[in-house]
Amino acid sequence: MRYTPLAVGKPILSITVLMFKLLLCAFCYGCATPPGKLTHSDYSWEEQLVSADYQVVYRRIVTGFRTCSDIGIAEGNIFTDTREALFDVYVNGFGGGRSDFVMGTIRLKSVGDSTNVIVGAHNVALTSLQATRRNQWLKFSAGDYSCL
């Protein structure tokens, strides 16, 4: 009886593609810069004024990231003495946790009865993806939880 492989070359191709994807993931996660080491020029920025208290806007952003959990993980801090808040936004990690790769940052500054929302997307992403991320985060700050 003669053995004939059904798919010549395909297992090698799929293994090559899998290895490429694993190396790409390792490269991306291995080059992650901690948020404290990134500078202002590492981000592309956009801002808007939201007519709500900074604590309300903070809760809206938390709700937005919980509602659209596949777009990243936001870890935030409120500074009541300065009436400000800061989020570091991370890429989702494997197994439901967060990775060390920073997607961006969100800063909230109280301005009277309103809040200045400043969003920065990390420059390693494509320009169109940076704009999409910034727009999504600004929508969260306004109370719009529609996911991408």
Characteristic key phrases:
five-stranded antiparallel beta sheet, TATA-Binding Protein, 148 residues, alpha+beta, single chain
Polypeptide structure, described:
The structure is a single chain. The protein has 3 helices and 5 strands; from the N terminus they run αβαββββα. By secondary structure, it is an alpha+beta fold. The protein has one domain (35-141): 2-Layer Sandwich (TATA-Binding Protein). It has a 5-stranded antiparallel beta sheet with strand order 1-5-4-3-2, covered by helices on one side. β3 (84-92) and β4 (98-111) form a beta hairpin. It is globular. Residues 26-30 have low confidence and may be disordered.
**In the CATH classification, which architecture applies?**
2-Layer Sandwich
Question: Helix segment count?
Answer: 3
Task: Estimate nothing, just give the exact number of structural domains.
Answer: 1
Taken from the alpha-carbon principal axes, the silhouette is globular
Name the helicity range: 25-40%
Low-confidence stretches: 26-30
**What is the H-and-E element order?**
HEHEEEEH
Radius of gyration: 20 Å
**Quick one: CATH class?**
Alpha Beta
The proportion of residues in beta strands is 25-35%
The separation of the N and C termini measures: 55 Å
Q: What number is the mean pLDDT?
A: 82
